[in-house]
């Protein structure tokens, strides 16, 4: 491998950085339109036809492109006259902790205030964080923590100070309606200011709440607590998430509809939109060339010289092995690039590098317990979730959250085990799988 070849691999590697694309980015591929229905176009149309506040849920597994699609939605809505604010909750909520409605509302309102200040300038957000600090110290009266003092930062404390957060939650549980009313009042004032600022009394405001689906506990006990908290947030506490005067769009994890049947009725008739994995394999396991071509086009847009490094069949193999998950696809390609560069292999790569990259990615799912393997084998056979007992919902949530099971849609929704795991689960079960 020449130095020029190695530099080419570096450029290719960097082009696959896992960051959302902004609206209008030339690297974007309209793969939903190419493969069938476009859920983002449907969501945009629904928002355009609504005349008051609404709640909308965007469901998809991590790595399916939700953050990029939310940016596309933002751009399309702005072109039609909406005022749209995108709030990435990763900077406001600790993603390893269970959620409670009180601190979630504080975080959402804070993120909205910050987004509006970025759009309209400093001071536009009515100094939300100071305002909320005063409310918590005087109205909620958290006596054991000095909120008003030098160096106190409510946003940072919510994100990084577990002792403060627990003390806050204990008090907020005593004042659920006060906290909700405070958040709603602030949101209403902010919408009024947007309409004044834009000289448009009927301006429709949309708040895109991204990254809530990334909540994931560490360890079995905390993971189950996170799942339960997400269920409670979108059922028992769902009314608080419908913010007056604002069209809310929440990104949610793929397991939530299974944990909370009939979610729409809990959220004032919320509309649910799914972003499935790209359909790269038919249910029988044979390749879907349309889906494989879309995956290749995504790579082509980022690095046009990829065919000097991989053959078309090799790229199809990586796309099929990803199960149509862009994040997995990019990671396996990057693994091939670093492996080939470290070995100094000539270009194009040998099939051995493809095989090893897939094996490396598969190892991240292992080991798989026998009970899990039995359930996964049923899913692989029926293409349904095969939930036999309600108390196993948390296991199904783990399968979907960890992407051992992927969600597809071509006509109807269906599920399948990650393609790299099918032979593994058969090997784990041995004669039991063959019987």
Describe, in plain words, how this protein is organized in 3D.
With 435 residues, the protein is of the alpha/beta class. The chain contains 20 helices and 7 strands. It has a 5-stranded parallel beta sheet with strand order 2-3-4-1-5, sandwiched between helices. Helix 10 links the parallel strand 3 and strand 4 (246-252). Helix 15 packs across helix 16 and helix 17 packs across helix 19.
- Global geometry: globular
Alpha-carbon Rg, integer: 24 Å
Determine the fraction of residues in helical runs and give it as a percent range: 40-55%
Average of per-residue pLDDT values: 89
Count of beta strands: 7
Q: Report how far the terminal alpha carbons are from each other.
A: 49 Å
The stretches of 5 or more residues where confidence is low (pLDDT under 50) are none
Major β-sheet profile: 5 strands, parallel
Q: Notable features of this structure?
A:
10% strand; alpha/beta; 7 strands; 435 residues; two-stranded antiparallel sheet; five-stranded parallel sheet
Summed up:
This protein is of the alpha/beta class. 52% of the residues lie in helices and 10% in strands.
